[in-house]
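User: Can you recover a sequence for this backbone? Please restate the input before giving your answer.

Assistant: Of course. Working from this structure:
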């Protein structure tokens, strides 16, 4: 019986997962809210579809601590966003700024919508011509 209990606990240790708990002591509740808001607006470069708050990847943890540290130092949101953009590129923002390099990101949905509208108009026009004949 003790062999089975020992085996159970050995198997249990292999299945246990450690979760990293992010504890950061802020000076005020306002700083905490600011840091959380900024970290929520930044994308994890490794996970791509998760914010810094959602991701537990080492890169996201490092970036999150950098954001928290900068908020503690008294830096405001534009300064932190500029730093993150300079270091990781525009990709880290969920809402990238409109400039020449990111124009394709902004224009692609509009061009696709325009192409779909033109195709739909041609199909409907062709069907109407066939119905008249």
């Amino acid at each position: 019986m003790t062999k089975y209990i020992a085996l159970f606990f050995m198997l249990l240790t292999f299945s246990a997962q450690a979760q990293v708990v992010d504890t950061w002591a802020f000076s005020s509740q306002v700083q905490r809210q600011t840091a959380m808001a900024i970290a929520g607006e930044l994308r994890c470069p490794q996970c791509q579809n998760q914010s810094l708050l959602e991701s537990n990847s080492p890169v996201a943890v490092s970036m999150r601590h950098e954001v928290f540290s900068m908020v503690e130092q008294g830096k405001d949101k534009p300064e932190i966003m500029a730093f993150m953009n300079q270091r990781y590129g525009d990709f880290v923002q969920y809402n990238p700024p409109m400039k020449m390099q990111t124009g394709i990101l902004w224009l692609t949905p509009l061009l696709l919508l325009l192409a779909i509208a033109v195709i739909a108009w041609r199909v409907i026009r062709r069907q109407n011509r066939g119905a008249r004949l």
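That completes the design. The radius of gyration is 25 Å.
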